[in-house]
Amino acid sequence: MRRQSTICLTCFLLVCSFSILPFFSSALAQGSGQGETVIRWQYRPEEPIIQVGLGGEILPMGAQNLTQSIRIPGLENRIIPGEPVVPFRTARILVPFGEEIQEIKVLPGEKKNLGKILIEPGQDPLPISFSGNRTVTPLNESTYSSLEPYPRDVFTVAGVQEKQGYKILLINLYPIMYIPKTKDTYYFGTFDVEVKTAPLGTLDRGLFRGSEADGAHIARLVENPAEVGSYASDLAATGASPLLDGDYDYLIITNRGLKNAPVPYNFTDLVRWKSSKGVASTIVTVEDIYSAYTGADEQEKIRNFIRDAYLYHGITYVLLGGDADGGRKGGEGWNSIVPARGLWAWDYEATPPMIPSDLYYACLDGDYDSNGNGIYGEPEDGPGGGEVDLMAEVYVGRAPVDSYAELSNFVRKTIAYESVASDPYLEKVLLVGEYLGFGGVSDWGGNCLDEIKDGSGSSGYNTTGFPEDYQKSTLYDRDRKWDKAELMELIDGDVHSLNHLGHASVGSAMKMNVEDVGRLKNDRPFFGYSQGCYAGSFDNRDPDSVYSPIDSILEHFVTEPHGAFAFIGNSRFGWGRRETTDGPSQRYHRQFWDAVFGEGIRNIGRALQDAKEDNLGSIDKTTDGNVMRFCYYEINLLGDPETSLHHPFTASHNLEVAGMDLPSYTKPDKPIEVRAVVKNRGIEDEWNVTVQLVEGDAVRDSEVVPHLPSGGSAEVRLSWSGAAEGRYILEARVLPQEGEELTEDNWQERVVEVYSNRTLILLVDDDEGADYEGYYEEALAASGYAYAKVDRPVGESELLSFDCVIWLTGRDFTTALTGEEQRTLARFLDAGGSLFLSGQDIGYHSHASDFYRDYLQVEYVKDSTGIYVLEGVEGDSISDGMTIEISGGDGADSQYWPSEIMPITAYSTGIFRYKDGGWGAVRVGTGTYRVVYFAFGFEAINSSAERAEIMRRVLSELTGPETTSVPEYGMDGNNLSSEEPSPLRRRGGPKDGMGEVFDMDLAFKEMSLEFKELGEVNQVFEGSIFEFVDMGSRLGGEKGYV
């Protein structure tokens, strides 16, 4: 909860411009004097990535109206409909025990000008079941015509929350400063944060209980973990609940009828099972709670008891053992057994607006109704009118049962899942995505689910998906039609996890209804997560405020004989967004699986709460902030919060070499990088894991991985070189750990060939899963070149192992040449590399980058020429005598957006021109590196014979002896501008053997020529561009003549 006090907020803004360090680091210092504590922390965000935004959907398409998005790796986006979308980072500062905040200062550091950018506006969040107007949200004219910086401040205070008695300050930092009217965009490379605190007048222990486990957990959450030490265990409060005797980990709250249910697999059996695992467990009835505790209503009495159970008896997990049907009498069983608290709903909710939420029983600070108006969970319902408590003390799930049969099914399936030691079904994951109709990438639920299936850095922030140990299957409307019969057959074949994004209601989801759930026959229960609307409405209310006599469909999944053992879902609307996968519900769904696989949190209740708390910085009083709160309240666990999701592993110790990658070819004594991925498929964590690179019987290199957690993997980089030509077999080997019995997968081997007189080519397949690389391989084979192919990230050292690199991006327009890839290629070229780059959307994605201008040395003219014929340049070594078509034939026929470009320096020369149009391809030769860049897809050239011939010419140009490439007279209007000086560095030489080689710098300005002498010149020279005779002392800056 937020504590109210007078806090001084100070922001210092620097307007200088320096170089930016592209990495995150933090440093903390603390000093005190006169009772004051000062906490200092420094944050360094990564450099921004600028991508194409929503384009013509916002304004008429044109160079001035091309919106762009700005992403910073690892950061979420601040999205307010119609306002510029900017990344932000939520910092968590632990306040010392017994102190309050006096002053917060944030000093932004270096400011870098990113140029003029029309930043895309945020899109409205909409219920997934929304069927109204789905037009794109336009930009807010008032904001976009303003000269005021956006955001107005470089930081905002998101609140002060308390978790398990620890007080945590939340600060949102904004690395981007934007001037909307001028489009000037700036980036701060560092933030120095200073927080001053002072002792409280009255010591408030809050819900601090002195648990060592609590302290370790808080230390992992905050930027200043050392401050945990100020919370001493002897400061914990003392007391007891009249209903508990002793300490417990796990608590079931139910009624007397269900506690004493005369059926097998009742709550008493569940308590025995938990206790047998070492989880101290107990049951308390609501009848006893209502008698022993005071409160405004039954919900408050239950919450007061849970607070005591947490504070004095060690409770961590709470299972609410009963349904919470609302607004009706009769129906499937008992009425509300453990009543839900209805929390405030921002919009789209019927009258009265109310979200049934078990979060109320997990977050125990305050009373959730500070103003006493009977509406719980309003933004100002914390103490003193501050934020309500959103950080949990305990982890809560619900068994939504209201009959003996449902109770027995729920408990039996929970114990059955927890009892599984090993089973092939644990590897099986199913993702079910339906048509949403939100436009563009958000038309299909499958596009969002792919981010969960494989992990993603989409929308800036990074989340881990299902590891490769899992068999990942999809059922997507995007890919083909499917019906409920096919889904039910897959479920009946047993799956471990099912994830869903699509339309739903109280009684239906995934094209199934409650009767279909009752017909399932799967022997092994699964875990489910759905973003669908109202599917988890455990009070049975629908969008029209009508209470159904039938339980919601997700309740049926966990209470029927078959189906799921647990399901996470929405008690009200799920939320998406137009034209993007960055929907509110999607953020929580991604963060849940990141908690499981990225943070190693296996207990379902813990993982769900972690997903919510990872999104705390997005909750405010804006439209999007209110929707994020809506989701925070409505996402509930129908299942046991203590249940841990299983790894698909069986052995205690089982290491494997999961991958090995290296170039197929190299040259004598030229080191290559060998990458090996080591996976821990065992149940136990491993320490000091040794990985070796072996040639024959000799260990050529090795590396030690200090810690490899269960389910974790690590990439090691090893080095090797061969002195002589030949074929070598290299083995990556991980040494077995003590007790490891399965060692057949502890090694992999690959072949590398060493050639001394052969041109070696690396083909980088960067087309985001398309199959365009085949056209390049065919042309390479026809040209007789040896090549290796990779479809993963590569470093400059690996690139430099080859004579030439071919890099294709296909039709990809969202990640074509990421910022990191551009930096890698820049280092590769600086070291003398040769590059053939091809892709129709490289310019569309990257035209504003330094790499595009400074290394490719072109200007992006337009996205789609609509011209599919290109003509070569007479006398050019690559294109002479060629006219090519990039549609039809035996090519890829994929050119929807062939780009027009224009050379901007004398190092870059146009080589293919669109018929009756501008340039489509250039060559660059600087004397240091060489590039051939096609602003269309080489794969689309519609004749295999022409592709082979062009490939031969391009590689001959890039790997043969270097020649100087400067356009005749240096005055082609598409190559040099008469308005701005264009630098030309010319390496000249004597004609007919006269004189010495020399260097000079030239600059064209107003069509006159300036000379700057770099070396001794005293002979008569004749060049293809210019002549001069015995200039002598006139060199060195004086005007010459052509």
From TrEMBL:
Residues spanning the membrane: none
GO MF annotation terms: cysteine-type peptidase activity
GO biological process: proteolysis
Matches recorded under SUPFAM superfamilies: Caspase-like (SSF52129)
Region (Disordered): 961-994
Segments forming domain CARDB: 655-736
Keywords: Signal
Database matches in InterPro entries: CARDB, Caspase-like_dom_sf, Gingipain, Gingipain_N_sf, Gingipain_propep_sf, Ig-like_fold
Pfam families in UniProt: CARDB, Peptidase_C25
All copies of domain Gingipain, residue ranges: 250-645
Entry keyword annotation includes Signal: yes
Record-given protein name: Gingipain domain-containing protein
Species, as recorded: Methanothrix harundinacea (strain 6Ac)
